[in-house]
Amino acid sequence: MSSSSGKKERLYKVLVVGELGAGKTSIIKRYVHQFFSQHYRATIGVDFALKVLRWDPDTVVRLQLWDIAGQERFGSMTRVYYKEAVGAFVVFDVTRSATLEAVPKWKADLDAKVALPDGRPIPTVLLANKSDQPKEGIAANREKMNEFCQQQGFSAWFETSAKDNINIDESANFLVSKILEMDKWSQEPLAPDPDKVELTANGKHKGAAPSNCAC
Ligand code: GTP
Ligand code: MG
């Protein structure tokens, strides 16, 4: 969407998934409302939040955040919730390794049910939340986490704390930059300009950037 002043506005749907109590709602509350509470109230179904970012002097990005209840992993609604999303966070709790063990299931659920319009997986960032607390299992091992992140096809992973406001803006900015990259790519005309795009024989973009792990 472009306004008459030449400024661009983008609206992106971003999913936030992960096990019960991993901190999805807390991360969103911190990011959007600069607020944190110790009090746990499980999300039922899905909640929404909107974050408006002045990305650069010409671009306003509106992030529509879909806060999906951890209990939905066993439900049948995720297919409906995931529709038309262009990015995602998978959140786990560093103090409970079972929440990390469930990450591949969440990632597989995303990959099975949502993709970019050209079929590529949506950029997804892994958040190791509650990093203000002592870590359990491989969450404490950076190298293993890098490996896990790469194997699972995440764009990157960040240690976050909704409580202490660690890496919340940074991880969101990273995901937005990935989304913008993908969006730019999809808007490129399929022009036969060798300096701009490489074409395959059937006229499609060649090797549309495999998920490369920034970890
Ligand atoms: P569901 O809605 O059930 O899927 O859970 P959720 O992932 O939305 O978790 P929620 O944000 O409700 O947080 C669960 C509990 O963890 C709450 O008591 C939060 O206060 C606590 N919590 C969340 N983030 C952090 C954090 O970064 N550090 C600490 N110490 N506690 C956190
Ligand atoms: Mg919640």
Automatic annotation (TrEMBL):
<dbReference type="InterPro" id="IPR005225">
    <property type="entry name" value="Small_GTP-bd"/>
</dbReference>
<feature type="region of interest" description="Disordered">
    <location>
        <begin position="187"/>
        <end position="215"/>
    </location>
</feature>
<comment type="function">
    <text>The small GTPases Rab are key regulators in vesicle trafficking.</text>
</comment>
<dbReference type="InterPro" id="IPR030697">
    <property type="entry name" value="Rab29/Rab38/Rab32"/>
</dbReference>
<keyword id="KW-0636">Prenylation</keyword>
<comment type="similarity">
    <text>Belongs to the small GTPase superfamily. Rab family.</text>
</comment>
<keyword id="KW-0342">GTP-binding</keyword>
<protein>
    <recommendedName>
        <fullName>Ras-related protein Rab</fullName>
    </recommendedName>
</protein>
<dbReference type="InterPro" id="IPR001806">
    <property type="entry name" value="Small_GTPase"/>
</dbReference>
<dbReference type="InterPro" id="IPR027417">
    <property type="entry name" value="P-loop_NTPase"/>
</dbReference>
<keyword id="KW-0472">Membrane</keyword>
<keyword id="KW-0449">Lipoprotein</keyword>
<keyword id="KW-0547">Nucleotide-binding</keyword>
<dbReference type="Pfam" id="PF00071">
    <property type="entry name" value="Ras"/>
</dbReference>
